[in-house]
Write a structure and sequence with these properties.
By secondary structure, the protein is α/β, with parallel strands linked by helices. The chain contains eight helices and 13 strands. The chain has an eight-stranded parallel β-sheet with strand order 6-7-8-9-10-11-12-13, covered by helices on one side. A hairpin with a 7-residue loop joins strand 1 and strand 2. The longest helix is centred in the middle third of the chain and has 17 residues. The protein is elongated and about 65 Å long. The C terminus is likely disordered.
Length: about 300
């Protein structure tokens, strides 16, 4: 087995028992980290030595909100407001992306993650125009080799010819992907369902998506409260009223959440996962130090109500 010992770096272990090691070493055996410690403690190890003095070694970062399919479109809408981006890039270009395009974009986006030190992602693939698009997305993630949760997107694009006869057909294909690609217990590659943006489809369809995620035993994920003052991407009170605000639901963005999520938290006291996306603040919403809009005060209120933020 190939053994490599990285020496001389400042190692951030994230392990309270080890702490930060100024002159640390990391032993890699094959594709596994076999040991972490001080360079002096691992000096006698039989391995190829690589001197990385002056560098830093730390655990891979985790990105809980990634859209690898947008990797090939980076910079196209850098000067556009949020609604312009959604119309021109997200839906505009998304509606003409072929499965091959999606596969390449996913691979490129996943490799960019690894290049930046991100070794695990929750990949929100909105653009599932056909069953072949889903297969290409999964293949791209696995080709890159990083740990991932593939979120099968329920968003509907004006793709021609349509890849699904109706919403039920899309849900059925999600079940196919679960059976064909994620039937085992491989922790490297897991599946989730990215719900349609709340408020853009009939609530009955949203409810069907949540129930499907539960039936398939996969993560549920939604873009929640992404824009302050917008009536879209809310829906938490409706989910709660119908008994669908459940554990195992990852909420991303959350910049615009306020009274609704607080009420739901008080009533349910269930643990959800929220990720706050600071990038969304760039679309006309500044962090409010008084705690009435995006920013850490809003996040503090969520923590107080047992809604976990990551």
């Amino acid at each position: 087995m190939n053994r490599i010992l990285l020496t001389g770096a400042h190692v951030t272990t994230m392990d309270p028992a080890l702490g930060d090691l100024r002159d640390g070493a990391v032993l890699v055996e094959g594709d596994r980290i076999a040991a972490v410690g001080r360079a002096a403690d691992l000096a006698g190890v039989d391995a190829e030595r690589v001197d990385v003095a002056g560098g830093h070694i730390l655990p891979g970062m985790i990105d809980t909100h990634r859209h690898t399919w947008l990797a090939l479109l980076r910079g196209i809408s850098g000067d556009q407001a949020l609604l312009e981006f959604i119309a021109n890039t997200f839906y505009g270009i998304g509606s003409i992306m072929q499965a091959e395009d999606l596969g390449v974009a996913t691979l490129v986006g996943a490799l960019e993650c690894l290049d930046a030190g991100v070794t695990a992602i929750v990949d929100c693939c909105d653009c599932v125009n056909t069953p072949a698009h889903a297969d290409a997305n999964v293949a791209g993630l696995r080709a890159a080799g990083l740990r991932s949760i593939y979120n099968y997107g329920m968003q509907r694009y004006e793709f021609r010819p349509p890849g699904f006869a109706d919403h039920a057909a899309r849900l059925k294909d999600a079940a196919r992907v679960r059976a064909e690609h994620f039937s085992g217990d491989d922790d490297m590659y897991r599946m989730g369902i990215l719900y349609s943006d709340f408020g853009t489809i009939p609530f009955n369809d949203t409810a069907a998506e949540v129930r499907t995620a539960r039936e398939l035993d996969v993560l549920g994920c939604s873009h929640t409260g992404a824009q302050t003052g917008s009536s879209l991407l809310r829906g938490l009170r409706e989910l709660d009223d119908h008994g669908l605000l459940l554990p195992g639901h990852l909420h991303v963005h959350c910049n615009g959440l306020d009274a609704g999520v607080e009420a739901a938290g008080r009533q349910r006291r269930q643990r959800h996962h929220l990720t706050r996306d600071r990038a969304a603040d760039g679309h006309g919403a500044a962090a409010d130090p008084a705690g009435h809009g995006p920013g850490h005060p809003s996040g503090h209120r969520h923590r107080q109500r047992d809604l976990r933020i990551r």
